[in-house]
């Protein structure tokens, strides 16, 4: 058994941001990160890769280059979480014990849950922006489609970046429009509305209508036949089959099995944490943040950015090294790419409270916000967030007139 003062499970956005921020404050602190992947991804860029607006390589860096200096990188994957004995067992068999554990394992993409998908993904017109390898194929299809039917799917919530399924539709539709190609565009959504926050849902109803695309609600993709170009959806009235020339799939998502099968899981399988303190509801030396927790915020990098200071101070406090931690307010944001060059920046907090970081109407798609999404956010991610800088400003202000 190897002992660590702070053990971080998962070296994605949340895990590395916490590790860097802890080491920025206390360079000698014993911080270790368990992460099997040799690559690190900027996933919000994949929407732009799928739109042909960002090179694929801009969204990937070697894990060794982003692992914070001073952190020990355990190149293995978590196999068992044993909080009753303050231990984590990795796939290689080693046991790691800890004073404080931070769980940042992200969520699990269940590609296998859709019959026939894995066999055809990346071919036969079947693509997904939810995978580094396949996002460029979305743009390739949008650039070559000569008409016919393009279908876009959205699985049951919660998923990471709830707006990403429709962003794929808008950028594809815009590409087709610019090429002068007339295609039938359809959005098959398992849920009942375009977005979880009503004021933004109403704006997005207009955006999708503006492309002449048809939204279908209560439609859940269950099978794909790539060779035949057919997709099957479960609906309240039974299964229906639709022909396609292009199909953009967003896979069903869940808590990682390793969490679901551990004492850290709440009823739905996610890490059970206090929604403001992000400390585990049972084990007070365990914290959770990012996509793997059961907090009812949007699973986004924007949320992680504002969760990091809460977890960092919570961890230091637990080690008797810090002050009271700021409470997390449920902030999340979704930059909806409604066309090439314009973004509707949806910002909100717990309980669907609408907020805005800028003194501008957040319902309005803007070129300025496209510049943020395309240039500023990626730069801030690589240069600031991964380097442990705290950039909670500007403070979003509540907009009660838009909240209901
Ligand atoms: P991740 O960054 O996914 O990291 C999880 C890490 O855990 C990974 O490195 C993984 O390898 C590791 N791991 C998994 N299993 C194990 C194991 N057993 N042991 C050890 N390590 C393990 N967010 C926004 O804010 N704005 C956007 O516009 C936006 N767009 C998006 C578009 C797409 C297509 C996608 C896919 C996501 C988008 N997001 C966006 C969401 C954002 O990327 C995530 O919310 C964010 O990455 C969550 O961070 P995380 O650390 O919780 O998970």
Please describe what this structure looks like.
- With 404 residues, the chain is of the alpha/beta class.
- The chain has two domains: 2-107 and 255-329, 3-Layer(bba) Sandwich (FAD/NAD(P)-binding domain); 110-253, FAD/NAD(P)-binding domain, CATH 3.50.50.60.
- It is built from ten helices and 23 strands.
- The protein has helices at residues 13-25, 45-51, 63-66, 117-120, 135-144, 164-179, 198-210, 257-260, 301-318, 367-383; strands spanning 2-9, 31-34, 39-41, 60-62, 72-74, 78-82, 87-90, 95-103, 108-109, 126-127, 149-154, 184-189, 214-217, 220-225, 230-235, 238-243, 246-248, 253-254, 286-288, 332-339, 342-349, 353-356, 397-398.
- The strands form six sheets. Strands 1, 2, 5, 6, 7, 8 and 19 form a seven-stranded mixed sheet that branches. Strands 10-17-11-12-13 form a five-stranded parallel sheet, with helices on one face.
- Helix 5 (135-144) runs parallel beside helix 6.
- It is globular and about 65 Å long.
- Bound molecules: flavin-adenine dinucleotide.
- Flavin-adenine dinucleotide binds next to helix 1, helix 2, helix 9 and strand 20.
- Residues 9-15, 34-37, 43-44, 46-47, 77-78, 104-106, 129-130, 160-161, 164, 256, 258, 290-292, 299-302, 304, 333, 335 line the site of flavin-adenine dinucleotide.
């Amino acid at each position: 058994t190897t002992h660590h003062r702070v053990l971080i499970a998962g070296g994605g956005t949340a895990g590395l941001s916490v590790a860097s921020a802890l080491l920025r404050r206390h360079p000698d602190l014993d911080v270790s990160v368990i992460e099997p992947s040799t690559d690190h991804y900027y996933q919000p860029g994949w929407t732009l890769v799928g739109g042909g607006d960002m090179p694929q390589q801009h969204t990937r860096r070697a894990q060794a280059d982003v692992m914070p200096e001073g952190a020990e990188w355990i190149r293995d994957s978590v196999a068992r979480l044993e909080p009753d004995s303050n231990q984590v067992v990795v796939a290689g068999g080693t046991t790691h014990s800890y004073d404080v554990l931070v769980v940042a394992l992200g969520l699990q993409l269940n590609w296998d849950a859709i019959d026939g998908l894995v066999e055809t993904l990346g071919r036969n017109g079947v693509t997904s922006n939810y995978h580094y390898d396949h996002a460029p194929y979305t743009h390739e299809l949008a650039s070559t489609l000569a008409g016919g039917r393009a279908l876009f799917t959205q699985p049951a919530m919660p998923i990471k970046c709830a707006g990403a399924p429709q962003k794929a539709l808008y950028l594809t539709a815009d590409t087709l429009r610019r090429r002068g190609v007339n295609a039938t565009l359809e959005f098959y959504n398992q849920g009942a509305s375009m977005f979880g926050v009503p004021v933004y849902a109403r704006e997005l109803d207009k955006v999708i209508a503006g492309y002449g695309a048809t939204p279908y609600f209560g439609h859940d993709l269950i099978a794909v036949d790539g060779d035949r170009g057919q997709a099957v959806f479960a609906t309240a009235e039974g299964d229906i089959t639709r022909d396609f020339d292009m199909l953009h799939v967003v896979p069903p998502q869940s808590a990682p099995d390793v969490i679901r099968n551990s004492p850290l899981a709440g009823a739905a399988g996610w890490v059970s944490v206090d929604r403001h303190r992000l400390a585990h509801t049972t084990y007070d030396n365990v914290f959770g943040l990012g996509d793997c927790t059961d907090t009812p915020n949007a699973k986004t990098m924007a949320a992680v950015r504002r969760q990091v200071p809460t977890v960092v101070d919570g961890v230091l406090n637990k080690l008797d090294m810090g002050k009271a931690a700021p409470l997390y307010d449920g902030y999340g944001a979704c930059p909806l790419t409604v066309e090439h060059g314009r973004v509707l920046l949806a910002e909100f907090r717990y309980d669907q409270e609408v907020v805005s970081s800028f003194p501008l109407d957040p319902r309005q798609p803007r070129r300025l916000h496209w510049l943020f999404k395309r240039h500023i956010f990626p730069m801030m991610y690589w240069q600031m967030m991964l380097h442990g800088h705290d950039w909670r400003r500007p403070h979003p202000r509540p907009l009660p007139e838009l909240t209901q």
